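Record format v2
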Amino acid sequence: MSMTAFILFIAIVGLTLVITYFAAKKTSNASDFYTAGGGLTGFQNGLAIAGDYMSAASFLGIAGMIALNGFDGFFYSIGFLVAYLVVLYVVAEPLRNLGKYTMADMIAARFKRPAIRGVAAFNTITVSTFYMIAQLVGAGALIKLLLGIDYWIAVLIVGVLMTIYVVFGGMIATSWVQITKAVLLMLGTLIISLLVFAKFDFSLLKMFEQMKTATPLGEAFLHPGNKYDVPLETLSLNLALVLGTAGLPHILIRFYTVKDAISARKSVLSATWIIGIFYLMTVFLGFGAAAFVGTDAITAADAAGNMAAPLLAQALGGDLLFAFVSAIAFATILAVVTGLVLSAASAFAHDFYSQIIRKGKASEREQVKAARFASIGVAILSIILALFAQSLNVAFLVSLAFAVAASANLPLIIFTVFWKRFNSTGAIAGSLTGLLSALLIVSLSPSVWDPSGAAIFTGEPLIPLSNPGIISIPLGFLAAYLGTIFSSEKADEDTFTEIQVKAHTGMHMDTD
Amino acid sequence: MADKNVHYKKVAASKDFRKLLEEKRRFIVPMTIFFFLFYFSLPVATSYFTFLNTPAIGAITWAWLFALTQFVMTWVLCGLYAKKAAQFDKYVSALKTESRGDDE
């Protein structure tokens, strides 16, 4: 490990611990812990959303995918961005108006049955855990490559840091770690993009012209179909990408950190600008890596292409830029896993403990204590799972998290706010069907079964589709619909009227 | 609070609230249908056809230009919503003023 890299890593750890120290002083009650007291501005939260969302899978994964597959890698960039229109148009403002700390709060505002809160909380934990295992396994492998330390030590370092941030600093520390990371990531990506662009004399025409001969793919590099040559797979992936974001609990809880629906809207607007500019720059990262590092060197360092961006930094700016980009990748991982720990822990502590077990009667001190214990529990569990999953190819867990979010959470959120007849039977049916169908399809898919042993189990996959979304998302919505119309349960119109007024005006929040 | 339902029913029945919902629906439903069609026309076109592989400007193909318009589309639709939402906010603050008047 180079001295520069070591110093930069320590600097990031130091900075985030300072943030946590100040955040801990300001964290006294449950609202501080779960939502930073709702005290962020729209722009700050927009940055934090960007920091929460742009994971190592985005920064390193997409750069690698574009470098190795050309256009097909860019599908992720587009889907990840367009998804924010769903968040802006249908989810962010009603969620802010109806909920308090968790995604389940919003659903429970309409349906009082504890079972429904339980199901929504369970989905939150499932999605966040899948996402976290993928991040931690990736983090371990990446830090191992970057710093030359053992996988288990790398996982442990990330695991301990995320636990410290959340346990001591709650959402305040989480938010500022994410904001710091977003600024660093944008800065690093901008520097590399400009260096790449300079190499092509700041001419897009020249860049595309040269890419026709820069890779073994030849001209096909610029054409779609190198990675996704099965149409159904491409459509399924795109469907999960565009609908999944609006159901990701760790993104949704970010909207509680601002004071009202107008600020929630401003958060999405800022986030969309930041995230969009970032994903546009992934083209420069991918093209640059393909042209100046080369396919062979990229796959030699990591078969999936995850080292493309750091190697590109090295090729363009030597050890200093390599160290800088590696440190940014480290900060990126930390910011995302921290958000995931908080979202899973709040489902345990707020939904299961405070609301279901204590029926909302837990004191502020008990709530904060429960949240801290839950955070430690979630972190330990994820670290153990990540240590066991080292040799497994778990990259598919991120797209599975998006698919579950879109199949199980989104129908629940949309119908709760917009459908008068929706009832608790439909809510449970839709949520469980979405979750179980996505899990079942993936467990029989090529992501889990591969005849040559490249997946978790060796054998023929029963379902040829890697991305379950195109089946499980319609099933989730359909089950929510059918469950509602076939149950004898009558819709509670008074509650829906109340929910409608609250969701669209937020007027109840002024008098609380 | 016994009059809670009465209160929400009254707001829900008010002219401003009906107008708010109606205007939201008139904006969000067609816009959502539009961006879904626009978004999915890219993977559909790249999966089933090859016409996007033809060069548009130099070596830049239509596929890349179409991909770029997805970004522009997202930002434009965000901007349009922000403008429209400023009108929604007017209804909301009118409703809040009315309801405060009722309380007193």
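The beta strands of chain B are 55-57, 60-61.
The mean pLDDT of chain B is 89.
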